[in-house]
Specification:
Length: about 200
């Protein structure tokens, strides 16, 4: 497989559920029993909620890292007093994948709340990433993983940056996506993407 074809990996809902079951088994086998699962916004939400169900955790919270673009001091000051007391709790912090080090920033923030113990989980670990989690369901060398919650956005961006004339049809796009990115996509799903692009006047009819 050439370099271009190793760039994208698409995870659909069925695959996602299977991966969550795999990592849930790893958590149970490790003996770690978290009191609360924290999902990083937005990629960790659905995974964290499924994990709550699979390993029997009632408490679920969300941590939004969008403030991390601000100076570190202002982020900490703005958020610490708004977050829950974790001082006696075992925490599992969850994200979908992490090639930019978001989990490391989130863990630094979480440690300020002095949890009893904190472990991390990226559903898919991208090899060579800045941060390696305690748990992952699988490892990939692909640099971009497309999950169900960002599928339409990513496909729109790929098409807009790949087709210079924006005059595209289903078979032309499907063929080029397969050839250049090793992306397999069903005709009906691709039609939905193109309809959304045309609705936003981003490509020609």
């Amino acid at each position: 497989m050439n370099k271009e074809k190793s760039y994208f990996e698409i995870v659909d809902w069925d695959t996602l559920q299977g991966l969550v079951k795999v990592v849930a088994k790893k958590i149970e086998d490790s003996g770690y029993k978290p009191d609360i699962i924290i999902g990083l916004a937005k990629g960790g939400w659905a995974i964290a909620r499924l994990l709550c169900d699979y390993i029997g955790i009632k408490d679920f919270a969300s941590l939004d890292l969008k403030c991390c673009g601000e100076p570190k001091g202002s982020y900490e000051k703005a958020n610490l007093h708004n977050f829950m007391d974790l001082s006696k709790r075992r925490v599992l912090m969850v994200n979908d994948s992490d090639k930019d080090g978001d989990m490391g920033m989130a863990l630094d923030f979480l440690k300020q709340l002095k949890p009893r113990e904190a472990r991390t989980l990226n559903l898919i670990y991208i090899g060579g990433s800045k941060f390696k989690p305690d748990y992952h369901a699988k490892e990939t060398l692909r640099r971009k993983v497309i999950f169900p919650w960002n599928f339409m956005e990513n496909m729109r961006n790929i098409i807009l940056t790949t087709f210079d004339d924006y005059e595209v049809d289903v078979q032309k796009v499907k063929s080029k996506l397969k050839r250049e990115f090793d992306i397999n996509i069903k005709d009906d799903v691709l039609k939905e993407v193109l309809v959304e692009l045309r609705r936003g006047a981003l490509i020609k009819n």
